[in-house]
Write a structure and sequence with these properties.
Distance between the termini: 48 Å
Radius of gyration: 20 Å
Shape: flat
Mean pLDDT: 80
Strand content: under 5%
Order of helices and strands: HHHHH
Largest sheet: none
Length: about 100
């Protein structure tokens, strides 16, 4: 299907079972489209704000907005950490992000 080998494996997985029409349509593909649109919107807003705001302000607003939007589905998937291995992992991932 992809003879030149330049396409990524993820693109191959998405289009591996492609058939004309909507019979093989996967709703999960819409998540990729939504993610691409959100990224493009963020890039446009960042470009607009770059003329009037400091870079640190724009980065702070981006992080705050992402935290709010990513916290919306959190109650649906939350699982309380159990065991010392999970707490060690949380600490190992949180430590590089702290100043």
């Amino acid at each position: 299907m992809f003879e030149d080998g330049l396409q990524s494996p993820s693109a191959f997985c998405v289009f591996d079972n492609y058939r004309p029409g909507f019979s093989s349509f996967e709703p999960a593909v819409l998540l990729v489209v939504i993610a691409a649109l959100a990224y493009a919107f963020r890039q446009i807003v960042s470009r607009i704000l770059s003329g009037s705001d400091l870079t640190m302000t724009t980065v702070a607003y981006t992080g705050l907005t992402a935290s709010i939007f990513l916290s919306i589905p959190l109650p649906l998937v939350w699982r309380t950490p159990v065991g010392s291995n999970e707490f060690i992992l949380i600490g190992a991932l949180a430590t590089p992000g702290s100043p």
